[in-house]
């Protein structure tokens, strides 16, 4: 689906950002002591130097909580004022209840509806589109979206083709009506025919956990890296191009490009094909690896801390992930909440 929403009656923006990354750092050198790999291989193939790993007792909601508190504080919104909490995650605390409900309870968001959304690494963009719809329609006035992942718990640490890629973290944003600017448009899509190229085969209703599943290690991420690479480079370009055209914009209008931090080589390819100035591209994959749905809000929060998000900055965000899914959003940065 694609829409230029700039003519809608209610303007919607991100009024607060926050992120949290676990303290434990796992470097490429640490990985080279665990599997047959090297810092040189990982750096050239992915751009990753280190990633953060959650403690054994930390679940997605534990990472989401500090990120959410920071976003609420920055927005000047209290938990009791929230009417909607959406958590995008592929690593929920449990299959149910929703991690969003657990988070809402921990925050004290007693008046909020709460649900989880599963769109892999595109989760944050999908969540933003959902919450945009609720705010623009007048259903929600103060919403919280969080991308939170503990991918280390579904990573096979003996599989060198996947364990080098992923990291843990959470990023959050408060979404509210604003006076002007804000979200200009979305482009979202899915192609389930490629779903098995990036999946966790067991643990759901198709293949519940059993001794056989554990024996075959089907509770971990399985990935056809070459196929995901091809898909990602294609759809991140087409999604961004189609969205910009729908918003009557070109790549020259973009001040800041925030891509999902899947792999530096994927992003470099996309940036070249879009004809984007590399100076406008935000990358932090060297420090966090691929944190799936958390990667974009972590990037945004860091960009804001670095002064890169000013009133009027035009931001293009693109993601691709399990599903296979993809999504882009174009927005004019402004945090001026509705008067
Ligand atoms: N260290 C050393 N060698 C390795 C490693 C490793 N960690 N992993 C694989 N190899 C070897 C392979 O065994 C193979 O050896 P062979 O030629 O003797 O068989 C060789 O390196 C090349 O393997 P490829 O899989 O072809 O390596 P490629 O250059 O494709 O890089 C990678 C692999 C990095 C996974 C790449 O395919 C990729 O980036 N894919 C995109 C996947 C991605 O980014 N997923 C993120 C999650 S999805 C998302 O966020 C959208």
Query: Which structural category do the helix and sheet elements fall into?
Result: alpha+beta
List of distinct ligands in this structure: acetyl coenzyme *A
What quaternary form is this? single chain
Which spans of ≥5 residues are poorly predicted at pLDDT below 50?
A: none
Instruction: Assign a percent range to the helix content.
Output: 25-40%
Taken in chain order, the helices and strands follow as EEEHHEHEHEHEHEEEHEHEHHHEE
The average pLDDT value, as a whole number, equals 97
Number of strands: 14
Integer count of domains: 1
Label the CATH architecture: 3-Layer(aba) Sandwich
CATH class: Alpha Beta
CATH superfamily: Thiolase/Chalcone synthase
Q: What is the CATH topology?
A: Peroxisomal Thiolase, Chain A, domain 1
Spatial arrangement of strands, main beta sheet: 1-9-14-13-12
Distance between the termini: 31 Å
Largest sheet: 5 strands, mixed
Rg result:
19 Å
């Amino acid at each position: 689906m694609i829409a230029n929403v700039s003519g809608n009656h209610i303007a919607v923006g991100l009024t607060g950002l926050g992120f949290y990354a676990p303290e434990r750092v796992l470097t490429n050198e640490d990985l080279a002591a665990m599997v047959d790999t090297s810092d040189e291989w990982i750096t050239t193939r992915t751009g990753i130097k280190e990633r953060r790993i959650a403690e054994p007792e930390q679940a997605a909601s534990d990472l989401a909580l500090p990120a959410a508190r920071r976003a609420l504080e920055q927005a000047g919104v209290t938990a009791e004022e929230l009417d909607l909490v959406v958590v995008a995650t592929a690593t929920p605390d449990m299959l149910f209840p929703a991690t969003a409900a657990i988070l809402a309870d921990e925050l004290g968001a007693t008046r909020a509806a709460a649900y989880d959304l599963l769109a892999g690494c595109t989760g944050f963009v999908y969540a933003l589109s959902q919450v945009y719809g609720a705010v623009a329609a007048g259903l929600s006035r103060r919403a919280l979206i969080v991308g939170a992942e503990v991918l280390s718990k579904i990573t096979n640490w003996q599989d060198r083709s996947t364990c080098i890629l992923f990291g843990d973290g959470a990023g959050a944003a408060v979404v509210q009506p604003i006076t002007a600017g804000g979200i200009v448009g979305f482009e979202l899509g899915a192609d389930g025919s490629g779903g098995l190229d990036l999946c966790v085969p067991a643990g759901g209703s198709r293949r519940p956990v059993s001794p056989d599943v554990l024996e075959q290690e089907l509770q971990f991420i399985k990935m056809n890296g070459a196929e995901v690479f091809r898909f990602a480079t294609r759809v991140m370009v087409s999604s961004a191009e189609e969205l910009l055209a729908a918003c009557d914009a070109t790549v020259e209008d973009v001040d800041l490009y925030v891509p999902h931090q899947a792999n530096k080589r994927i992003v470099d390819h996309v940036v070249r094909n879009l004809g984007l100035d590399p100076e406008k591209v935000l990358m932090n994959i060297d420090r966090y690896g691929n944190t799936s749905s958390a990667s974009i809000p972590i990037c945004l929060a860091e960009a804001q801390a670095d002064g890169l998000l000013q009133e009027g900055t035009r931001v293009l965000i693109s993601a691709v992930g399990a599903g296979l899914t993809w999504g882009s959003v174009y927005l004019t940065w402004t945090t001026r909440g509705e008067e």
